[in-house]
Amino acid sequence: MSAPGCETRIVCSIDTGSDCVHVLQAIAELMAVRAGMPALRANRVALAVDELFANIMRHGYAGGPGRVEMEATLGPGADGRRCLCFAFRDYAPRIEDAGSLMVRAAGDDVRPGGLGLCLIHAVMDQVHHQAAEDGNHWRLTAHV
Question: In a structure prediction context, what are the per-residue pLDDT tens digits for the chain, which is 144 residues long?
């Protein structure tokens, strides 16, 4: 059952060793289009979702097996504005200080690795991380 005021809600659980990343991309793009985003922004939102999932697989689970739960919702946000939100839950080792991972300073050397979170921040309006007792919670929000 959807949360009160929620227009659309999709929930899925994905094994990091599967090829289901395409499912996440499709869900993200579908939800962005349903939110009325232009095709380019919808594609960028799907890319941000894909990047977070890749980071969880690569860094959280170190390329090993793991599980990620994702909930995509479209509806009113806490501030009353319509928003598209992607909530991720992993069971990887908890990250105590995600703030240190979040954004590279302008002028830092551009090199492979470490740019994914910059991309996520550039696309999404809000990025939030919370360490859980047995993993991590991530929330990506785009205002519509």
Answer: 455 567 899 999 999 877 777 889 999 999 999 999 999 999 999 999 999 999 999 889 998 999 999 999 999 887 888 999 999 999 998 776 655 554 444 455 555 566 888 899 999 999 999 999 999 999 999 999
- Dihedral sign for Cα atoms in the order 87, 98, 20, 27: positive
> CA angle at residue 138 from 48 to 2, to 5 degrees?
95
Burial status of residue 120 (CB atoms within 10 A of its CB: 0-12, 13-18, 19 or more): buried
User: Which backbone phi and psi does 94 adopt, to 5 degrees?
Assistant: -70, 145
Cα-only R_g, the chain: 15
pTM: 0.85
